[in-house]
Amino acid sequence: MEASNGGYANGSGAVVWGPGEPFVIQEVQVDPPKAMEVRVRILFTSICHTDLSAWLGQCEAQRAYPRILGHEASGIVESVGEGVEDLKEGDSVVPIFNGECQNCAYCRSGKTNLCGEFRVNPFSSVMKRDGKTRFFATDGNGERRPIHHFLNTSTFTEYTVLDSACCVKIDSRAPLNRMCLLSCGVSTGVGAAWNTANVQKGSTVAIFGLGSIGLAVAEGARLRGASKIIGVDINPQKFVKGKDMGVTDFVNPKDCDKPVHKVISEMTKGGVDFSFECAGNLDVLREGWGLTVILGIHPSPKLLPLHPMELFDGRRIVGCVFGDFKGKSQLPGFVDKCMSGEININFDGFITHELPFAEISQAFELLQQGKSLRCLLRI
User: Fold this and answer.
1) Residue 277 annotated in active site
2) In the CATH hierarchy, which fold is given to the domain comprising 9-183+346-378?
3) How far is Cα 235 from Cα 208, in angstroms, rounded to an integer?
4) Which one is predicted more confidently, 293 or 62?
5) Is this structure's pTM higher than 0.90?
6) Active site residue: 45, 50, 133, 188, which one?
């Protein structure tokens, strides 16, 4: 590992050279940050299902190789580019794939958390401001081959370059080996329960898919005092972990002799107040009533399997990105409340495995086999 402010940084990165190909741990040369950018030394990164889908090449928009994946991480600012005023060398930070410039009409609006310039964009594989990459692989002749970026972040590397809009400063006392989960999973799930659905004390909730996002929804609903949190999943092993994260009741569709929505209706005497689709399965949209929040990643091309008249029975459907959190504005305060004990998130419950960075392929295997929620990689 070698870095110098204002110059290239050389560090280890996990590079994907083609869809589904093995990760190659190799030296990556990282350019210095340009105007309004920061270079971050990643200390911890974890793996999300979105990374898995991108690695397998399941989404056309994400097929750009060679590429450095990863979007859930934490680290320390190593250097900053011209014009960056809110971040400095040594700051503890988490990258966010859904950026916030804090200046555009979208950021100034209280109705959306999608920035006009730096919102999540799966079609992007370069830096926003100049359309170029900051990552390079060098061959024996010293020739530099560009490596593509991923979701504004690219965290499977010792050093990454972020737009300052996609980098959030947090309390330096916060444990970075847990705060990395705020880059995606915990923020998305808890925020869906709090910001998108506004779950209240006594509410009834159904969660379809008990991966990390679904369990983070459960955590958010539990903290809000939901009276019944029903977890729906075909993997019975998920039920054990679900109990630790606030799930009160479980439904395995494979064990049901009737449609799941009828089972849930009987359990709740009419239906739940809120349902959350966290599995990337659009068919479950027929299983709810009340407000349904869509969080799962859906392969293209997919359309909603609903007739408009089905919305006349009181059902509402809404999408959710990053838990409707405005990252730069709201995450620092969220961390402060976690540190003070005002918010008691069970971060440890999400991390089922911890491995060194060199074993990233094993971490992906664990996720693909349904054996892990979050595998924390130490870089």
Assistant:
1) no
2) Quinone Oxidoreductase; Chain A, domain 1 (3.90.180)
3) 12
4) 293
5) yes
6) 50
